[in-house]
Amino acid sequence: MKIKWGKIRRFLFGLPLINIENTWKNVPNVETPTRKQLRPPVIAFATGMNTAIEVALSDLLIGQLDGFNDNCRGFAYEGAGMGLAIIDLSRNKGLIPKFLKAEGANYSELIHIGIGCAIAVLKKELEPKLKEIEPMQRWWLPDGFGFFTGIYKWEETVDEQLIPSQIKGHSLRAFDRGLGRRMWFAFSGDPKAIANTISTFPKSRQIELWSGVGIASTFAGGVERETLLSLKQLAGDSCSYLALGSALAAKCRYTAGNIIEYTNLACSILCGMSASDASIVVVKALEELEANPNEPLDVAQPVFETMREHVRNQLARTLVTV
């Protein structure tokens, strides 16, 4: 009898939807229309992950991922990145590099976030993996690590504001972005609840938390215009970081060709321009900077952060005029 390793992997590492539902219950909040809007992307992520864990990199996986609508497809690819990374980290199959060179090429940032999620769930060290990733993509790993850690360790990471031992140096900035993204889902896009929680963190960490909120509020969405306006107002002095996150989220959709109407709404409010224009700001910043493929992790200023600062400065000038 042939052993069905895919079934075994899914049993060991799969993400039952009931578990996701329970993570919402860990953060007191009533059922809202936004929460209902956020469920399909979450289900897409879990489906992509579970399918990848079971069938690995296959035509069946790609067919499943591409079957999602424009709003949810990126989440499915992110989940697939997590699933394939779990296989790679467990059995060194080299699936992620193949995925990134083929069907996953337009979802690079999201797939790298998925890798970070996998590192968190398997309780692996971050640094060895960061050294393998090229400088413009590597800092998405601790972002994913922060998001997934925030899901299952909310009390430690948010209430107690503890920093996991794997998070060192520049990784903290990305970890906080992931934690900010988690807050968007946990509080179902409630600006006041998000702002109140971020305000309890040290000032040095608040800007990246807001940047993470900008990513999630633009990529996942689920809210109306008035909520986005409130979010921007409550971000206060951190609104340029909120805009930065929004632009990076738009760029992810721009590259994959799945900008939706909501993306334009979010960018028009948070960035002061259309989603395509915000994406082009990021693309140009990426093109203008030459990254050293051997950039050390402890460099004084990672080229990725230099890129982000270029984007933020340009967005900040735009925000002043709108």
Mean model confidence by pLDDT: 92
Strand content: under 5%
Order of helices and strands: HHHHHHHHHHHHHHHHHHH
Contiguous helical run count? 19
Structural class: mainly alpha
| CA-based shape | globular
- Report the biggest beta sheet as strand number plus sense, adding barrel if it closes: none
> N- to C-terminal separation?
67 Å
State the share of residues found in helices, binned by percent.
over 70%
Number of strands: 0
In terms of per-residue confidence, which ranges show pLDDT below 50 for 5 or more consecutive residues? none
InterPro entries: DUF1702
Protein name: DUF1702 family protein
Pfam families: DUF1702 (PF08012)
The gist of it:
Pfam families: DUF1702. Helices cover 71% and strands 0% of the residues.
